[in-house]
Amino acid sequence: MPILIEGEIARITAVVSVEEAETLVAFLEGGANRMVELSGTTHIHAAVLQTLMAYRPAATELPVDQALRALLGRVLAAEPPAMTHAA
Fold it and tell me: Looking at the predicted structure, is the pLDDT value of residue 80 above 80?
């Protein structure tokens, strides 16, 4: 199971598929202080990435894989984009 919920932390490991996005959304909706631990993540589906981008939970650990670490580090540390309205 790629997502293991332990209290306020979701441990996300191995290959995370599209099916896991719903589990992650439900977890993150459950409280403002929810965090993710990503050290064991080796591949992440775009739907799960979008969930992380939308909720921006704190990460207790980032993936070991350098490319994934760089991507998720930027995603989770970045400020949300400013909302603009077209006139």
Answer: no
